[in-house]
Write a sequence for this structure.
């Protein structure tokens, strides 16, 4: 019992301690006080101001003094608004407004922060997301809560986009609270030694928490060791944090090898990073910032039997107060705690437990270095050269991930030539071009695209030129000639009209960071460049190094190797057994059944039983008979011979290992329809399987280490061989042939067929005391046949047919595959919705299959087109994959189509509903269905604080509308979308059956009205309408063939969308007469596949849970096959309970109730819009969904790339 309690205690002690950690222990739980409103005007500064009344001091939230906010002199992406909070504070939220009573507001912005007003860091909302959503008008307030919060004294708001009809205009607020901070500074030659209390009982758990800011890329942060060389060490190595756990005892077994855990990257950026180390016996939790590594060291608790002292900042040499064994840490530690003890506080009070060595101080100096980020290949920085001097001399430091790019270009005076310094293949090359001579080249350094800072010194004078990269020097002799330095040096790239030798090159410009630039003997101040007082530039971010590690965390799966450039990353899948952008898709079939389906003969094959899951492929033999048998051999002996032994003693205990791992075997067995393993037993005068007291004398062990005394296909504990079950043993008194004890060789063939226990991992046999007994047995291979996921099918015969499945959970990576056949022209195979995200696979046209989704960057589509129709009643195979790199779709053997994802966009697919497909609905005369958009846009902490204006802030500049209908009545209102501002959209059938569309996007103007005289569409046939608006351009497509484009004149923004109505509209305030006439008539007939953007009203009607967005009046019922259903105007055959009203009655026209409250026996359906049978091939779930999520991985940005090229 004690051991169980101790185990439970260990688990509890290792629970996450983020809220316990003393790093933020001094901060109150309610940390959301306004921090900027009480600051004086002098605390606000900016890049420029339009006038004195537009200055930064007028930028406080909700203030109307001055011109009502900050507006810069010019509106471009190099402007910024800055706040000085006076001291470091914890910042938890920000809020923005536009300029009061103006047309000036910012629609998106970046947020940066700094401790000292230099070396700014850009706040990342999550993963690769940088930008913040701003305002859509001048006066509403948009809040954004920061997850996680940060600590800083200075904040900067950098506008990215603004109202195109106005200027940049901002009013801001910052929320947070005071931040407790104890800091200690180490100069690279100092350390703190903390002597622990030598208590009789060691602490159950050791917890070390701290924050650090590194001035250099290498150094010891902490060290603790024991008597025998065992130690723990935390060391910064090339900007990564490495935790060493070493036993130091050569006598310990080799399994207790030194442990090295590495976390973090680019940690030498002179910004704060948090560390938490938890040790309990041999269990280790190691956390750096948001990334945690859990580790269980082998051995007993003495493995971490350490001394009662721990050093911070370095490892002192015993007996020498200023000597250190390894490179010490240069930088600052903040809020340093050991088991809840504030070590810095003890040091400041000169407590006896603390020994300070070297220059230790208790304030953190602010870095004065000003880095410059070259954001794109078109970036450049033009600086004046040391004109007129007889030499060229430039030094700087750079860091980048790119293997190639121009670093520096300059022309010499009097036409005497030019030089170019560039990266190629990770090496630095210098080329000097002089008239009449071949180019002179020098190469130095290697692997310079590793993200680390590298120092460069370049000089050319008279008879030689040389380049020094870090410690690598290269010299090139020159013909003695005067080197006359030019007027301008170009860093990173060239002007568009430059024509100098070497400036125009396919290598492109430099992307990365530069700092510490000197030209001649003069240091360059980039702040003067930023202020316009020195040189010129394009597409730079000054006073910040914006490098990020796109391989941390790595999105490469299955051991794929991640490599990166400035803009993206790639995965090398060689040797992993997987393929695709992120090494997600297996190269191998899931089973021998799948190999047989491909027409492969018997032979050795690799199979991947869990498909794209975490388990790797393994080698099996596929025996293709009438069934496909998977044969997995074991590595045990071919035959085991047993001879007599004393009673009760084991004669044989043989273990059997397999080429596949336990997880791989379990997956293969679970996937199979049947598995078995045969045991062939030959015996002469054998013992009985039980002793006289009934104790089993033989047993076998299954894959989960459980012991079984039953043999063959018998039930557990029946203790019978197969012949005993079949009643044909040679001696009817016994249940196994070998139990007869005859002086002759007999045999048993035992078939173990309980697949949940297979394969056999051990067989144990003891003896009952027969001295001359003898036996031999042979264990055969594991045999499995069938594939439970392969031969699964479902028939969807009506639109209201359904299957019930949970939500799709492929946040970062997921793939879907299935077979289908159909005879109809369009329909949705599968769809899953989130609050804003969705995923859908559909047959959009007879020759088109489309995979569409949205992860927050806007809808993305991948379409495969076929020269022949897919609705030919033949089987077609679909495979779709979506990951952080993009999406792919393949149908049959047609070429795979792919769409890349934006480099800095949302990556997580967030879904919360169940899988279902659009249904059709019959609308009786006078009935209606209203979808309320205000429920769709829910109030959140990141929305406007003005509840009354929340929904009115929803402005649409584009929307896509689709619907299918069948009716014979005119006039008819097919769809009506209203707004709070009396703007609307109506889609109607006129008296003559023509399609009419009206947009009114300005309540002070008449609506734009368009008539599409395609034909009389009230002909009782099914028609499809698709409307796609991009600002003022509206594209209308009817029946997937006829298209027409029109231009709106009433406006480009649909403001404050309120509701979507299908059927009769009771109030259409401000609508034109034709719309009102159609609204009064309503719609009688069948509607299907209705969508407005992401909203799907008919699906919302059958959603099993969620807000009551839909209200119904009158008789509306699901309908089978809108394409061939009941004639319009006649009652539809109801396949589900009515959507409104009680049983056997229709609600009156003025009654309405939320559809979610209606009676529904069929919850969360996948209905068939098309008649389809789906074969599930190589997939884990019943509808071909196969999902693999990287458990170690951890949402938002506006896409900066055209949706036509990226998604």
């Amino acid at each position: 019992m004690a051991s169980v309690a101790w185990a439970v205690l260990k688990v509890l002690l290792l629970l996450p301690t983020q809220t316990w950690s003393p790093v933020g222990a001094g901060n109150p739980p309610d940390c959301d006080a306004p921090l900027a409103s009480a600051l004086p005007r002098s605390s606000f500064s900016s890049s420029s101001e339009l006038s004195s009344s537009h200055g930064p001091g007028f930028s406080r939230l909700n203030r109307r003094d001055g011109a009502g906010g900050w507006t810069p002199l010019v509106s471009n992406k190099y402007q910024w608004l800055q706040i000085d909070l006076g001291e470091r504070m914890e910042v938890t939220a920000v809020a923005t407004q536009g300029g009061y009573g103006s047309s000036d507001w910012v629609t998106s912005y970046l947020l940066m922060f700094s401790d000292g007003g230099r070396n700014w860091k850009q706040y990342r909302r999550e993963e690769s997301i940088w930008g913040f959503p701003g305002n859509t008008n001048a006066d509403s307030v948009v809040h954004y809560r920061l997850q996680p919060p940060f600590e800083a004294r200075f904040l900067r708001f950098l506008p990215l986009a603004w109202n195109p009809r106005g200027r940049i205009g901002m009013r801001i607020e910052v929320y947070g609270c005071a931040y407790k901070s104890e800091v200690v500074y180490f100069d690279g030659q100092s350390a703190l030694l903390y002597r622990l209390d030598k208590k009789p009982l060691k602490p159950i758990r050791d917890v070390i928490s701290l924050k650090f800011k590194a001035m250099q890329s290498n150094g010891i942060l902490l060290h603790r060791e024991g008597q025998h060389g065992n130690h723990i060490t935390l060391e910064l190595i090339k900007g990564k944090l490495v935790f060493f756990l070493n036993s130091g005892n050569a006598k310990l077994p080799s399994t207790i090898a030194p442990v090295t855990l590495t976390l973090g990257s680019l940690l030498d950026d002179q910004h704060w990073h948090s560390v938490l180390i938890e040790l309990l016996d041999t269990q280790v939790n190691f956390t750096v910032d948001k990334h945690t590594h859990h580790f269980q060291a082998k051995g007993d608790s003495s493995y971490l039997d350490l001394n009662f002292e721990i050093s911070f900042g370095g490892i002192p040499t015993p007996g020498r107060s200023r000597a250190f064994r390894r490179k010490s840490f240069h930088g600052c530690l903040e809020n340093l705690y050991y088991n809840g003890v504030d070590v810095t506080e003890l040091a400041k009070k000169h407590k006896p437990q603390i020994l300070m060595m070297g220059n230790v101080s208790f304030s953190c100096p602010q870095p004065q270095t000003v880095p410059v980020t070259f954001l794109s290949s078109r970036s450049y920085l033009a600086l004046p050269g040391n004109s007129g001097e007889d030499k060229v001399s430039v030094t700087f430091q750079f860091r980048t991930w790119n293997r190639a790019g121009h670093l520096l270009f300059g022309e010499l005076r009097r036409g005497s030539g030019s030089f170019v310094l560039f990266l190629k293949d990770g090496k630095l090359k210098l080329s000097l071009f002089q008239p009449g001579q071949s180019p002179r080249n020098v190469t130095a350094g290697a692997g310079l695209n590793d993200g680390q800072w590298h120092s460069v010194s370049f000089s050319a004078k008279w008879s030689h030129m040389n380049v020094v990269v870090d410690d690598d020097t290269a010299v090139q002799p020159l013909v003695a000639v005067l080197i006359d330095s030019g007027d301008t040096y170009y860093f990173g790239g060239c002007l568009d009209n430059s024509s100098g030798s070497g400036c125009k090159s396919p290598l492109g410009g430099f992307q990365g960071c530069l700092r510490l630039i000197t030209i001649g003997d003069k240091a360059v101040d980039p702040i003067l460049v930023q202020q316009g007082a020195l040189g010129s530039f394009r597409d730079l971010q000054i006073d910040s190094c914006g490098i990020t590690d796109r391989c941390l965390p790595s999105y490469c799966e299955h051991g794929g190797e991640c490599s990166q450039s400035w803009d993206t990353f790639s995965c090398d899948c060689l040797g992993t057994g997987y393929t695709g952008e992120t090494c997600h898709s297996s190269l191998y079939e899931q089973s021998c059944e799948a190999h047989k389906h491909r027409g492969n003969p018997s032979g050795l094959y690799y199979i991947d039983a869990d498909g794209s899951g975490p388990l790797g492929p393994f080698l099996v033999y596929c025996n293709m008979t009438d069934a496909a048998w998977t044969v997995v051999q074991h590595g045990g002996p071919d035959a085991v011979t047993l001879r007599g032994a004393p009673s009760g003693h084991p004669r044989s205990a043989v273990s059997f290992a397999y080429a596949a791992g336990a997880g791989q075997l379990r997956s293969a067995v679970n996937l199979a329809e049947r598995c078995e393993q045969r045991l062939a037993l030959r015996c002469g005068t054998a013992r009985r399987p039980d002793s006289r007291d009934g104790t089993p004398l033989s047993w076998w062990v299954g894959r989960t280490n459980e012991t079984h005394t039953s043999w063959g296909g018998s039930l557990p504990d029946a203790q019978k061989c197969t012949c005993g079950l079949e009643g044909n043993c040679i001696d009817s008194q016994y249940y196994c042939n070998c139990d007869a004890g005859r002086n002759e060789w007999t045999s048993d063939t035992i078939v173990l067929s309980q697949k949940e226990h297979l394969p056999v991992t051990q067989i144990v046999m003891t003896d009952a005391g027969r001295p001359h007994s003898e036996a031999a047995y042979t264990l055969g291979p594991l045999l499995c046949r069938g594939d439970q996921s392969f031969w699964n099918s479902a028939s969807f015969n009506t639109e209201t047919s359904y299957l019930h499945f949970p939500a799709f959970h492929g946040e970062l990576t997921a793939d879907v595959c299935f077979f289908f056949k159909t005879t109809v022209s369009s329909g949705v195979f599968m769809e899953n919705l989130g609050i804003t995200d969705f995923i859908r696979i559909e047959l959009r046209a007879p020759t088109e299959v489309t995979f569409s989704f949205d992860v927050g960057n806007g809808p993305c589509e991948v379409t495969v087109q076929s020269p022949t129709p897919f609705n030919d009643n033949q089987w077609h195979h679909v495979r779709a994959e979506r990951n952080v790199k993009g999406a792919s779709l393949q149908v049959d053997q047609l070429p795979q189509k792919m769409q890349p994802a934006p480099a800095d966009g949302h990556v997580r697919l967030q879904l919360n509903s169940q899988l279902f497909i659009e249904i059709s609905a019959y609308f009786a005369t006078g009935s209606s269905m209203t979808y309320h958009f205000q429920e769709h846009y829910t109030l959140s902490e990141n929305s406007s604080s003005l509840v009354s204006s929340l929904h009115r802030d929803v402005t649409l500049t584009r929307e896509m509308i689709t619907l299918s209908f069948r009716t014979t009545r005119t006039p008819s209102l097919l769809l009506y979308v209203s707004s709070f501002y009396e703007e609307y959209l109506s889609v109607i059938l006129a008296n003559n059956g023509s399609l009419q569309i009206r947009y009114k996007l300005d309540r002070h103007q008449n609506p734009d009205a368009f008539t599409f005289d395609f034909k009389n569409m009230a002909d009782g046939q099914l028609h499809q309408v698709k409307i796609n608006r991009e600002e003022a351009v509206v594209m209308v497509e009817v029946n997937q063939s006829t298209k027409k484009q029109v231009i709106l004149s009433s406006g480009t923004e649909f403001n404050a969308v309120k509701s979507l109505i299908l059927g009769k509209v009771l109030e259409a305030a401000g609508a034109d007469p034709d719309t009102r006439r159609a609204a009064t008539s309503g719609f009688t007939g069948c509607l299907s596949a209705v969508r407005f953007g992401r909203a799907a009203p008919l699906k919302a009607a059958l959603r099993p849970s969620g807000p009551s967005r839909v209200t119904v009046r009158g008789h509306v019922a699901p309908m089978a096959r809108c394409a061939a259903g009941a004639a319009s105007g006649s009652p539809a055959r109801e396949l589900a309970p009515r959507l409104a009203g009680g049983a056997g009655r229709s609600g009156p026209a003025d009654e309405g109730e939320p559809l979610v409250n209606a009676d529904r026996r069929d919850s969360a359906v996948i209905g068939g819009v098309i008649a389809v049978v789906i074969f599930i091939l190589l997939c884990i779930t019943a509808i071909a969904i196969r999902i693999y999520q990287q458990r170690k991985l951890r949402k938002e940005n506006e896409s900066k790339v055209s949706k036509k090229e990226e998604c």
